[in-house]
Amino acid sequence: MPFQDRPYHRSRPLAQAIRAALFCLPLATLVAAPAAMAQSAVSEQSVRSYEIPAGPLSSALSRFAGEAGVMLSVDGSLLEGRQSGGLSGQYGVDEGFDALLQGSGLQAVRNAQGTYSLAPRAEQASTVELKPMVVEGFALGNALGEVEGYNATHSSVATKTSMPLVETSQTVSVVTRQQIEDQGSRSIAQAVRYTPGLMSSPYGATTRYDYVAMRGINDGSVDNLYLDGQKLLGDSGTYSSLQVDPYFVERIDILKGPSSVLYGRSLPGGLVAMTTKKPQYETRRQLQLSYGSNDYKQVAFDLTGPLEDERIAYRLVGVAKDADNQVDGIEEKRYAVMPSLSIDFTEDTRLTLLAMLQHDPESGYHGGLPAVGSVSSFNGQRISRSFFEGEEEHEQFERDQQMIGYQFEHRFNDVVSARQNFQYLDSRVESEQVYQYGYTTNGLPGDLYREYTGADEALHAWSIDNQLQFLFDTGALSHTLVTGLDYQRRKTKVSYDGGYVSSVNPYTGARPTASYSFYHQYDESRKLEQTGLYVQDLIGLGNWRFSLGARQDWVDVSFDHVDDATYGSHKDEAKLEQFTGRIGVLYAFENGVSPYVSYSESFNPNTSSAYNLTANGWDISLLDPTEGEQIEAGIKYQPLGTDDLYTISFFDLKQSNLSSKDSSEYFFRSVGEITSKGVEFEARVSPMENLNVLASYTYMDVEYSKDYVGRPGINNRGNTPNAVARNMASLWADYTFAQGPLAGLQIGGGARYFGKSWVDAENTLRIPSYTLYDAMLGYDLSRVGLQGVGVRLNLNNLTDEKYVAACNSLSQCYYGEARNVMATLTYDF
């Protein structure tokens, strides 16, 4: 029986995962109860120190509720246009609300469960009509919810608790839902392309995976993606890496630098954390139709609202798309649905059930071309962007992925709250590909040497994260203490075929009938298991903010490599214990300026194998885990009374034991060390009403600080890795006309610059710099009587620049996306 049809892959992991989830569900409560009782002596109205600047009353209240750790019901009509003078000093919860609401005619009312709501003062209650209330708070405040416009004020990605961005001692960028839509992003990688320090197209125009290289660290994997606070547990050593459709995503938080203290194994460049759309307690419905270049067709819907029992809300989001590709003969297809349900058992307890089902019958192009013929000309010619080096009869990438999970949160009192997140992932990939690997040496000039690979993979993974949060004071110090215990388990089974295919000439246009020679390559079972225990204390002392974190991980990785006619059968297992830490210091001046400095660490065990030829034959063993460390210093500035944010950061990052391969090898080895030093600048501002501006600049000096291990005759020390530019910059602006004959019209445009980069690690050939221009035009048709209807036109690579985005080696270079035009019709009802 083929391994993919064995009962284990169909039922046993899911059953084990569900049993484990049911077992762990009460864990947070069981652990928290003694802690809650231990804190019973702490007054629920304990006095804490607050430094909240003047500005919109809604922002001040949201920040106060998040820092105080209380739930707040917000009536939108009461806050429109209201300002706050801020809050500075020592306050209890009630006193803090009173001070913030002084002169507003509003009061904060506390019910028996400890939840606060805003209401007019008694003398004004009869004159105010209330809108439906929206609950904000729990332990994470507004750090994970919807954001109006482009500028988020809080994020939880760096601390796992609601934290103002201006007071976070690490670089964090947030891409909001509106930015994703306005820029016409068709993938997560496209959505983050205006973020500093990122290279979101290291494999060119491919849309099969969301590659994001951060701060010069590009290991060719997608191992830095997170979904709803948990690692997206694909296997970066195989084809089983999962992808989330951008229509399912509410916001994307990008954390720069090592982050193992809270997340365990991770890449040192940073991480990309996606937050999916969650159920809302206000009925909303959206239907979206898109059509664009390469016969791109997409239908999407988003339905949410309360059920008959108003404590329960649902959301159902779906996408179906079908498109050709700029490369001849390639298609993309997707059918995906994401249902979710939120249940408010009490005002302090919420359970959100999540699921995602996705079928990708075709997943687009994922190939490359030689540097000679793409970066530089070959006999005066360049290969067309539409040239397909493979064979249609052996071009397949079919992916099925499912996710189920839940998010549980409970607030015991003003001091203690608990959260538990669970996620189970299942993926099946069947693929075939004929790919080129440079020019032949004995064929006709210009002929490409080609090989074949086929894969049949099954992945099952689950993870659970238990968190306890404590809010308390010790003397003049205010503490937000987060403790956690998380666990993740992943198992992948793969079966690979290889082969050789007759050559093809990319310049003549002729495609003779291909001849094939196939063989079975090997089967392999790969496992990873990780348990992590972490603690973090966020301390406030007046205007000072301190962040202290520590974590201990226990990791077990193994593989069982069989049926390999060339290298034989091998097994290996590695048990790893790793300690990581983080420390940050920030000072929040009264004028909105916050300088900071931080140090953080990361590690990432490898499930990839190193092949070494010994006197006894081939030895296959697991690569060493990568390790990273970074020192970062910066300044953040949020002008008082605004949500604008300016950030400049300086970083010194080092990664050791990075797995890689060069143009002369097929297999991964270890790179001794890479260092990355640089500066990033980002501005997310609204200089006037209805105008949004995003600006960024990045300078990086990245080099191999140690040479390849075991590579005689090759010295890469001091060289710059491929797909890394010394200079990057971007600018985006959009404006919506609110009055006059153009009312309802939205116009936007942007430019992205990527400097020169190297084709290979040996630094033998440079890729020229390139600048890409994007544009957007939208109109709100409700202005002409079509209520809820809007249209938008997006143009990416407006000038149709033909460019190579990046290369992996002299034989593998990747053209960037050609000009793409997309029209979208949206109906909200």
From TrEMBL:
Its main location: membrane. It comes from the Bacteria. InterPro entries: Beta-barrel_TonB, Beta-barrel_TonB_sf, Plug_dom, Plug_dom_sf, Secretin/TonB_short_N, TonB-dep_rcpt-like, TonB_sidphr_rcpt. CDD domains: ligand_gated_channel. Residues 70-121 form the Secretin/TonB short N-terminal domain. NCBIfam families: TonB-siderophor. This is TonB-dependent siderophore receptor. It comes from Stutzerimonas nitrititolerans.
